[in-house]
Amino acid sequence: MAEKTLFEKICDREIPAHIVYEDEQCVAFRDISPQAPLHILIIPRKAIPRVGLAEEKDEGLLGHLLLTAAAVARSEGIAESGYRLVVNNGPDGGEAVPHLHIHLLGGRQLLWPPG
Hints:
By secondary structure, the protein is an alpha+beta fold. The chain has one domain (about 5-105): HIT-like (HIT family, subunit A), CATH 3.30.428. It contains two helices and five strands. Strands 1-2-3-5-4 form a five-stranded antiparallel β-sheet, covered by helices on one side. The longest helix is centred in the middle third of the chain and has 17 residues, at about 60-75. It is globular. It starts with 5 loop residues before the first helix and ends in a 9-residue tail after the last strand.
């Protein structure tokens, strides 16, 4: 059996995190190294290494993650001013943890291109 990722350990409460939302399918928590005034990660409980490895059977879960990100943005008070959702895929995409996750960034004007 493969070792659990950092995010799996957070889901299993083996590592503490500032959780702002959770349900049967996902967990949302504050990033420990925020890149904006608001930086929350939304992760599926199911261990999918990256979006490029998701399967057709994950379609509902992927949609749920996006809807959850929008709901968290509303609950955090940034839905009206705007926010950015980022999904990194692979090393060149900036992926640091091999567990699919969505970055919810907001609370300031975000520039384009992002970097």
